[in-house]
Structures are given as structure tokens and as C-alpha cells.
């Protein structure tokens, strides 16, 4: 008797979590992710300057890969900080 | 076998604008002589750096596109690193 309600509640929880974000790079159909596009890259780094994980940014694997390269290039050329604070 | 490259470098902001201009031209000319095909040169101008480099918080950004054989690009990168007026340089292969 205690089984079914429990199951339902955990299923409900799961459903809430699977609200899938759409990769914003796929949506915008940009040809590449440019390391000079600072305002855009800014959205994908934390306040500390770390690159946000996919589970937070909602990017697809392909674009996340390209994004990390772009952010790292931007850091080399001082468009983005390696670290802040 | 030529490759498309893009090089971004930061010149010390303490230099006069006219001096920066000549230096940018010199660098472009140095690879042109070796057979590189220099494309667009975008002088983005003075910008704030995201972090301090050599006690400076600002730099003059230049982006240059060119097409050449890989050794020419490598040599340009080396020259930029040796150049005292260049604070940072980033060479990128546009083909991959």
C-alpha cells in the first residue's frame, strides 16, 4: 500500500527536472562560436570566471565543446578573466 | 598548402597612436614579403583588459587575417612574442 504513492511522487519529481533547455547556439544558428564575442561568452561563465556546465547552460554537447575553446581563447587574449575576486 | 589564419595581438597602450599604426603595418609587411596574403586588419583600438598584464589594465587590440604557409604563421607568432610592444598574441587557424 505504501509503494504506489511513493513511486508517483518520485516520478513527479523526475518530470519536473526533465524540463529540457534548448541549446541557445542551436537556436541562433551561428556558424561558429567566436572568441571575440565577449558579451555572448559572458553569459556562459560564472561570476568567478568559470565555464558553466552543460546542465546549467543547457547547451548541446557540440556547442559546449566549441564554447569551451572560445572561452579559453578569450582568456588568453584578456577578453575574459581566468579568475575574478 | 596555404592555411587561413587570424592573429589577435595586444599592443602596449603607452605608445602613440601613430606609432601603433606603423607597427601594425610593419608586422603585416613582414609576412607579406614572405609571401603571405594579408586580408583584413581590424584595429579594435584601446580596450580594457579582463585582467592585469605587466601592471597595465588596458591594451590596443589588433586582429589581422591572412593566408600563408604554416611556417610563416609560426614565425609571425614567434616575432610577436619577442616584440616588446606586444603584450599578448593569439594565432588561430580558421580552417579547423
Q: Summarize this, please?
A:
Chain A is an all-alpha fold. Chain A has helices at residues 3-17, 24-28, 38-42, 54-57, 61-76. Chain B has a single domain (3-93), classed as Alpha-Beta Plaits.
What would CATH call the class of chain B?
Answer: Alpha Beta
Morphology of chain B: globular
What is the makeup of the main sheet of chain B?
A: 4 strands, antiparallel
User: What CATH first level of the domain at 31-85 in chain A would be assigned?
Assistant: Few Secondary Structures
Give the number of DSSP strands of chain A.
0
Shape assignment of chain A: globular
Radius of gyration of chain A: 18 Å
Determine the fraction of residues in helical runs of chain A and give it as a percent range: 40-55%
Number of helices of chain B: 2
How many strands of chain B? 4
Q: What are the low-pLDDT stretches of chain B, counting only 5+ consecutive residues below 50?
A: none
Q: Structural class from helices and strands of chain A?
A: mainly alpha
What is the arithmetic mean of pLDDT of chain B? 93
Give me the CATH architecture of the domain at 31-85 in chain A, please.
Irregular
CATH H-level homologous superfamily name of chain B: Ribosomal protein S6/Translation elongation factor EF1B
Q: Major sheet of chain A: size, sense and barrel closure?
A: none
Question: What would the CATH topology of chain B be?
Answer: Alpha-Beta Plaits
